[in-house]
Amino acid sequence: MHFVYILLSEKTDKYYVGQTSNIEARLARHNAGRVPATKATRPWKLAHIEEYASRFLALSRERELKSWHSHERINRLIQQAQTG
Q1: Domain range for residue 6?
Q2: In whole angstroms, what is the distance from residue 77 CA to residue 72 CA?
Q3: For the chain, how many structural domains are there in total?
Q4: Tens digits of pLDDT across the chain (84 residues)
């Protein structure tokens, strides 16, 4: 399985979108400062996760979410997922 995840910076209230096959290890790397793009804005918490059968599908969804460029649109996605 592959996952698309959205992290929320507790420092800046900004989102980061990524994909991985191991969500726990990836989140640990972000919070340990081992990901250059997120190092300065730690700590991060997992705000949203989606599961996909292949890396190709996860990468496609990651690109789609990154193309949104909208904090509010991502907020709506997270809220909809939480309410079912």
Answers
A1: 2-83
A2: 9
A3: 1
A4: 999 999 999 999 999 999 999 999 999 999 999 999 999 999 999 999 999 999 999 999 999 999 999 999 999 999 999 997
pTM, full prediction:
0.95
Mapping DSSP to helix (H, G, I), strand (E, B) and coil, where does residue 52 land?
strand
Q: Residue 14's domain is classified under what CATH number? A: 3.40.1440.10
Determine which helix (DSSP H) or strand (DSSP E) holds 23, and give its type and residue range. Answer: helix 23-31
d(CA 33, CA 20): 17
Number of CB atoms found within 10 A of residue 62's CB: 21
